[in-house]
Write a sequence for this structure.
């Protein structure tokens, strides 16, 4: 490909709205351009990188025994309502109605669709196992698109779905996919870690995330020096075994807090440390109200709370439910006098004379102490972990690292096959739901992660396997006929030999070409100038190391 004949709009300056390094360099190198918030066009260089990534994914998925399909992006809303996820998606879903008034959802994921497809085409255990995958554009109405292609409204995913007759079969497919993911990300040149994670909206029994350390990621990983590793969503901590201090006060006192509902508002107005406040959140647990208590500088981990209480369903109560449970509107709940079960985090045991809601509008209480003023139904680890927490095995402290998810694998079980309907007859003729697994990869994020991990002050340093081209030919003087002829002949020769070559044939100053070459980051630069050409040589520069060497033109092809 000749630079002059393609679209590579490189930029000298960093765009003002680009925070992440990968976003800055992708824009500057002419890989992407934004159409609207969270929606990007991929230009020739960026699209070639995506195609390289997709090819690696296809090769490894096929090698693992999966078969490729292509599923619709437009889903009838009924199928999402059937699985119960229509409401779970909330405002993240992009829904629309056609001219006939039928509602559709632009697919953010395809569990419902693939389960419906498989359910109508399997009858017996002899039809299993199946492992089907696709590579397709997905959609979600991301509230805060950020960091270029890391968090977008439209994104490319590889999603695979396995169907088995029993748990042993699921275990086999799950392991195959895990091994395939290791090969995919290694071939793409990424350093990654695998962490246990929350199943979240997807449901199921267990999941693991493939993460790359990245300051612009949306996830955090908790680790200890002794090998503990887990997503912050599910990370546990050691019991601090706190003893409640002796209270300095006699009893709780009520004080006025007109229109002050949040921890931040109370803390700012009365100069109270959030760590010395009790945050009370009201939830509906399997249809019944409960209260969860954490310190004001902590957040309730709903997954931990659900696990502690062995709940099937947990959600935050709405305003009407909070008023009914506490007698006060949102923002004024507290544990003193509550008639519903109260579950306190371990940290609550370590504070006395705390400030909390009074279960009255515009009122709070001070001097509240656990044990004396209220007795929790139970205590436990119900908050998200923080830096410095004790590791769950008691060995060392936890450290939180900002990371970006590039892949996620799930053991879904029968979450979708029962609700959507994918049943088969086993060897005894009994009707059973297929056991399901789900395996996703964010294709766009691999591009961003590669840039985050492989760049320097000059620009991108692509791993060879996903670089848009193998090498770039650069003419120092495009007006010199001999230089141009040698460069053109070499371009045609290398292309005919199967090498992917970008030929910078622009009539630009050498400095501009060198800067652009370093910016776009193609692994090998072949520099052709009059001085070296007079000796029958060309210069080869390794973009990653910066090393250069002179090579005879005759041996260049074999050298590359």
């Amino acid at each position: 490909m000749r630079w002059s004949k393609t679209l590579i709009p490189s930029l000298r300056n960093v765009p003002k709205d680009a925070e992440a390094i990968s976003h800055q360099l992708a824009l500057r190198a002419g890989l992407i351009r934004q159409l609207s918030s969270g929606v990007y066009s991929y230009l020739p260089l960026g699209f070639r990188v995506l195609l390289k990534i997709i090819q690696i994914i296809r090769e490894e998925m096929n090698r693992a025994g999966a078969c490729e399909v292509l599923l619709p992006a437009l889903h009838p809303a009924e199928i999402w309502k059937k699985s119960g996820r229509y409401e779970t998606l909330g405002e993240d879903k992009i829904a629309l109605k056609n001219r006939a008034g039928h509602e559709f959802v632009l697919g953010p994921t395809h569990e419902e669709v693939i389960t419906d497809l498989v359910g109508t085409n399997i009858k017996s255990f002899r039809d299993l196992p199946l492992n089907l995958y696709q590579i397709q554009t997905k959609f979600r109405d991301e509230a805060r698109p950020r960091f270029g292609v890391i968090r977008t409204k439209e994104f490319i995913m590889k999603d695979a779905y396995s169907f088995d007759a029993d748990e042993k079969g699921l275990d086999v497919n799950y392991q195959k996919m895990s091994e395939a993911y290791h090969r995919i990300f290694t071939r793409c040149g990424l350093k990654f870690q695998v962490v246990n994670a929350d199943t979240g909206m997807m449901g199921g029994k267990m999941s693991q995330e493939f993460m790359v350390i990245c300051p612009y990621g949306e996830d955090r990983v908790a680790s200890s020096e002794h090998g503990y590793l887990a997503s912050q969503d599910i990370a546990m901590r050691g019991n601090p075994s706190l003893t409640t201090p002796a209270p300095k006060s006699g009893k709780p006192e009520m004080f006025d807090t007109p229109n002050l509902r949040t921890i931040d508002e109370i803390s700012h107005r009365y100069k109270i440390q959030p760590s010395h406040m009790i945050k009370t959140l009201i939830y509906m647990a399997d249809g019944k109200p409960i209260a969860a208590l954490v310190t004001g500088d902590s957040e309730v981990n709903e997954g931990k709370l659900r696990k502690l209480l062995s709940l099937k369903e947990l959600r935050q109560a709405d305003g009407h439910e909070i008023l009914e449970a506490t007698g006060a509107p949102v923002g004024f709940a507290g544990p003193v006098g509550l008639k519903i079960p109260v579950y306190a985090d371990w940290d609550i045991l370590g504070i006395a004379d705390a400030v909390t809601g009074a279960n009255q509008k515009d009122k709070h209480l001070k001097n509240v102490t656990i044990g004396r003023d209220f007795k929790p139904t139970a205590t436990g680890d119900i908050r998200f972990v923080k830096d410095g927490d004790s590791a769950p095995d008691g060995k060392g402290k936890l450290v939180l690292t900002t990371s970006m998810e590039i892949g996620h694998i799930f053991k879904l079980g029968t979450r979708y096959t029962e609700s959507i309907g994918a049943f088969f007859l086993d060897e005894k003729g009994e009707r059973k739901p297929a056991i399901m697994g789900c395996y996703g990869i964010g294709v766009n994020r691999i591009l961003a992660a590669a840039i985050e991990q492989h760049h320097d002050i000059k620009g991108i340093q692509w791993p060879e396997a996903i670089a848009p081209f193998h090498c770039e030919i650069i003419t120092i003087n495009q007006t010199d006929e001999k230089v141009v002829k040698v460069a053109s002949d070499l371009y045609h020769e290398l292309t005919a030999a199967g090498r992917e070559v970008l030929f910078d044939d622009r009539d630009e100053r050498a400095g501009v070409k060198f800067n652009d070459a370093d910016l776009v980051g193609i692994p090998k630069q072949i520099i052709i100038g009059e001085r070296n050409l007079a000796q029958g040589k060309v210069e080869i520069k390794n973009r990653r190391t910066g090393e250069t060497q002179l090579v005879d033109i005759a041996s260049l092809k074999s050298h590359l």
About this structure: Residues 44-72+108-235+400-451 form a domain with the BirA Bifunctional Protein; domain 2 fold (CATH 3.30.930.10). The chain has a mean pLDDT of 93.
